[in-house]
Here is the input.
Amino acid sequence: MRKYNHPPIQTISLEQILYALSDSVRLSFVNNLAKNEKQSCGDLTIGIAKSTASHHFRVLRESGIIYMQAEGKHYINSLRKEELDKRFPGLLDAVLYGLNNN
Here is the structure.
């Protein structure tokens, strides 16, 4: 399986993160990961074409929001929450709070 590169957190910009979170599908992925810690791509993409899901995972990975690791035949996704909280304190919590309280 392919090993993905993940950008160092200090190179991530606020604009990249906000762009990645501006899409409702990607925001849904992030919300699910916040609630469940780790999930496979298949668990997150029910009802979404594989090519579309791949695009969304790439955007989230390259923006520094998620970490993807191969485990067997699957990729397991997790939020880079601790790193993001150090770089942009409270940002992810504010986005998720707004999403879950509407």
